[in-house]
Amino acid sequence: MADRARSTQSPARYGLTDDRAEQDLVAAGWWQDGGPTPGSDVVLAALARTPDADLALLALDRLRVATDDWDDLSAELRDNPVFRARLLAILGSSSALGDFLAANPREWHRIVGELTEPADYAGLLLEAVTVDGERMSSGDATPSLRAAYRGLLLEIAAEDLAQAVDRDLPVVGYEHISSHLTELAEAALGAALAVAQAEHPGEARLAVIAMGKCGGRELNYVSDVDVLFVADGDTAVATRVASTMMRVATDACFEVDAALRPEGKSGALVRSLDGYAAYYKRWAHTWEFQALLKARPVVGDKELGEQYATMVRPLVWTAADRDRFVADVQEMRRRVEKHVPAELVERELKLGRGGLRDVEFAVQLLQLVHGRSDEQLRLGPTMAALAALGDGGYVGRADAAELGESYRFLRALEHRLQLQRLRRTHLFPADDQTAELRWLARAAGIRPEKGKSEAQKLLAEFRRHANRTRRLHQKLFYRPLLQAVARVPSEALRLTTKEAGARLAALGFAAPDGALQHIGALTSGVSRRASIQTALLPVLLDLLAGTPDPDGGLLAYRQMSEALSSTPWYLRVLRDEGAVVERLATLLGTSKLVPDLMVRAPEVLRLLGHPAELAGRDPEEVAGSLRSTVKRHGYLGNAIAAARSLRRHELLRVACADILGLMDVREVCRALSSVWGAVLQSSLEAVDRAEAVAADGWKARISVIAMGRLGGAELGYGSDADVMFVCEPVEGVSDADAMRYASRVAQSVRKQLGAPSQDPPLQVDVDLRPEGRQGPLVRSLGSYVDYYARWGEVWEAQALLRACPIAGDQDLGARFIEAIDPVRYPVGGLDLAATREVRRIKARVEGERLPRGADPNTHTKLGRGGLADVEWTLQLLQLQHAHEVPALRTRSTMDGLAAAAEAGLLDESDRAELISAWTLATRVRNAVTLVRGKQTDQVPTSGRELAAVASVLGYPADGDVGEFLDAYRRTTRRARAVVERVFYGG
After folding, report:
1. DSSP secondary structure letters along 273-284
2. Where is this region: Adenylyl transferase (predicted)?
């Protein structure tokens, strides 16, 4: 039975499809009578796990023919699982190493036991070019060095590839293999140099400087080895030595490239230390300093090599001070990518989109910019530098981890592709190259999974890593903060306390000692947070220097940073989004309101990087979202807290957009009014629900009528909400019960919203109701109608001009407006007595309401040509003519002035003067509130507050604030002249 089962087997069971497979297995002694010979099944099972079983078996057959100890080799394959995995993985992955073993059949012994330590590479290669204590000639040394080098390369590949065949063996990372390959390359350079020096004796010292991947200790299996030569003594001898060394190493091992030397291939191959110094200081391009980042002496005269490194390091770590440094490096990456043919750009592992260069350029640029002040970043290997950038906070932990994972994956694929034929290649197979994809997947240790073949899984992984690499490259390499950091001179990044104080004073900080204390508090310690602050602060200080109040801005930044220290994304956003830092500096150095709100609504900070989201939200959408959110809270306290929180968020969002010039004054006023209306609506609903529960049901319908600036959608940042409450009983409830119920609701709304808070006040002002403070808080619709008909005064009709329903029962609100229209738009307009009364009240307001000590020329509300002047002028025209000019029946000041001009009630020039003054006074009033952090109507007349107000209005922070004051006085003076003529009849 067992014999019959065995006889049905074929080599195809082990992944062997070549017609010669069974013949080769029989010749090897592993196949007989239609199945494996005893003990050979482990060899065949391992053969099936190789990337290409047919390739591996073909190479084994060639080795069998070439070697004189096949029986020993075959026994090792059966009995030694580590050797079995090493040899079969090599033969199934690399036709070039298979050829090497066929030509050098004794070399298989290298991978039987312990592999050669890298520390021994140099001695072994020197031994290979030495006979009887003498160095060989270059002609004789080349083949001997080639064989020795290839043998050691075989050992490295054996350790690298074995896990693909035997998963019980440890995974060897790309960094480990690259380090060994670099050690081997250095040893080969040393041996070639020894041959060259023996062939060209003379008085010359020569140091070989490794560049690029060799300098970074991250070579591939097949890499150019970039070098520079530094000489001291006889330059002619040194040049001959260098040329011979390059020829020997190139012919025997790998291409040695000296094209990164000054002036490239047209420049001298060898230069003195002074020659290099002169060139770098006078003529070097930006890319040359980027190339020098990995430069390190490897072989030759150690003292001379170290002198070169000592001379170069300061030049490398101040290169970012050069004009356009960041832009030049970014342009270089774009040029490199453009050289890749369009049809290959998605498959090029090295130079294409999402390739290795994306990672390397991003890491190097970050190193060169931030490494000026942080010596921990001055590392050669890409992965070590990326880890240091992550540890130091210059790159997010998740970004560093993801980028590192993708880089290792792409480098591993690059290694496998190069091992196949030991050729320099970086091209990922095309989607339709199924056999090549399967081979590469198996060589990389990728196994099939349910529903996906090895090739499909490899394709998916390659695209995932390439897309992620490209995304993170774009995020890090083109980070706006890099430009800002690079603009800060290196000496400003590394100052003594005394020097730092002097620099802060030069930047415009009035209290450098205090600023130093803030900086020390933010950067002290060795935490990741302190590292990120250390990178951010030089940029922030420069940005704050361009604001009206650098000292106040830095204090606000410290307070904000301390308050948000537990917010995980806070510093990450500042680091990763340069636009956020720039805009935040403007806000903090200008406004006291913004930092206070930002601490309690930090989510708005994220919006600073997205101007469209910061300024582009529709007020109706915002209001609807606020009402919906509050409605989800059943408990009254939670509902009111939610309303306050959302109002705080919107207030801060609008304030930021306003200061940054992203919203005009009408948009600001409309947004603030809409938020206030939504807060009133949601609060009324919450209180009404709670009161209905306590009263066993609803007793009254309630409508809130907006008055004043709220009614006109012209609120400022600190404006109260002028309202009136109107109610009517629900069916079956008496008027008295309904009134008591509605009064409790109205009082509770005022109390809940007016409770003490760190936010700008939420005062609900009901002083415009009939009888003012002496009258009832809530009236029925009939009571309002009766009052206005019997006792209403002209100022009350004037107040009703901007009345509109804003919360509560919409039908009741609409009926209220219908009822008051005859009051505010009286048929026949105002008679002479009523007109005189309006003018008398206005004159009294001017004389009695202006605060003591206030300057009437610069008081935005009650001053000459201010808001009250313009609004009373329009309102008088509305009271006089709205009954016959429907367009005047508007709550908007600007729309009303336009309607008055169109109706011929105002000259066009007068309309323009009034609109100009009203717009300016509104903007200034808002700006003063933003700057001072509290509602105020008086324009500052000197100092940093005045400069800050001027900057909010678009005047340069370092300009003459007198221009702003002159413009304000001139505009309001012209408006006052119109008011004297139109309102007072002068």
Report:
1. HHHHHHHHHHT-
2. 489-986
Judge if 423 and 533 occupy the same domain.
no
What is the DSSP code string of 339-393?
TS-TTTTTTBTTTSTTSHHHHHHHHHHHHHHHTTT-GGG--SSHHHHHHHHHHTT
What dihedral do alpha carbons 396, 398, 400, 406 form, nearest 10°?
A: -150
Q: Rounded to an integer, what distance in angstroms lies between the CA atom of residue 529 and that of residue 270? A: 46
Q: Tell me, yes or no, whether 291 lies in a domain.
A: no
Q: Are residues 458 and 557 in the same domain?
A: no
Please check whether residue 851 lies inside any domain of the structure. yes
Measuring CA to CA, which residue among 606, 576, 409, 421 is closest to residue 485? Answer: 576
Tell me whether residue 264 is exposed, middle or buried, using C-beta atoms within 10 angstroms of its C-beta: 0 to 12, 13 to 18, 19 or more. exposed
User: What would you measure as the largest C-alpha separation in the chain, in angstroms?
Assistant: 129
Strands (E), 419-519: none
Does residue 6 have a pLDDT over 50? no
The verdict on residue 235 lying in a domain is no
Question: What whole-number distance in Å separates Cα of residue 485 and Cα of residue 493?
Answer: 9
DSSP string over 197-224? HHHS-SSEEEEEEE-HHHHTT---SS--
Domain residues for 864?
828-982
Examine the domain organization and report whether 456 and 520 are in the same domain.
Answer: no
Q: Are residues 508 and 433 in the same domain?
A: no
DSSP state of 233: E
Most confident of 529-538, 618-627, 904-913: 904-913
Q: Flag whether pLDDT at 8 surpasses 70.
A: no
Q: Calculate mean pLDDT across residues 710-735.
A: 93
Instruction: Count the neighbouring beta carbons within 10 Å of the beta carbon of residue 801.
Output: 25
Taking 80 as the threshold, does the pLDDT of residue 21 lie above it? yes
Instruction: Give, to the nearest 10 degrees, the angle between helix 550-563 and helix 528-545.
Output: 160
3-class secondary structure per residue, 721-758: EEEEEEEEECCCCCHHHHHHHHHHHHHHHHHHHHCCCC
Distance of alpha carbon 930 from alpha carbon 838, whole angstroms: 33
Residues 800, 704: contact at Cβ < 8 Å?
A: no
Q: Return the axis-axis angle of helices 454-477 and 397-421, rounded to nearest 10°.
A: 130
Residues 515 and 438 in one domain: no
- pLDDT at residue 485 in the model: 64
* Angstrom distance (rounded) from CA 908 to CA 912: 6
In angstroms, the Cα distances linking 4 to 1, 33, 135, 390 are 5, 10, 64, 62
The predicted pLDDT at position 493 comes to 59
Contact 163, 174 (CB under 8 A): no
Contacts of 692 (CB under 8 A, 6+ apart): 698, 699
CATH of the domain at 459: 1.20.120.330
Instruction: Give SS3 for 131.
Output: strand
Work out the number of other CB atoms within 10 angstroms of the CB of residue 60.
28
The residues with which 233 forms a beta bridge, in sequence order, are: 204
On the question of pLDDT at 413 being above 90, the answer is: yes
556, 518 in Cβ contact below 8 A? no
Give yes or no: residues 200 and 340 share one domain. Answer: no
Q: How many structural domains does the chain have?
A: 4
Token pair of 175 as six digits: 């960094």
Judged by DSSP in three states, 762 sits in coil
Contacts of 606 (CB under 8 A, 6+ apart): 569, 573, 580
Q: Please count the other Cβ atoms lying within 10 Å of the Cβ belonging to residue 843.
A: 11
d(C-alpha 902, C-alpha 908), whole Å? 8
- Any bridge partners for residue 704, and if so which? 725, 807
Q: Are 454 and 544 members of one domain?
A: no
Boundary (domain end) residue, out of 539, 555, 589: 589
Could you tell me the pTM of the whole model? 0.73
Of the three residues 486, 518, 546, the one that is the final residue of a domain is 486
Q: CA-to-CA distance for 182 and 223, rounded, in angstroms?
A: 10
- Looking at the fold, whether 335 and 201 belong to one and the same domain comes out as no
Q: Do the domain assignments include residue 45?
A: yes
Asked whether 870 and 983 are in contact (CB, 8 A), the reply is no
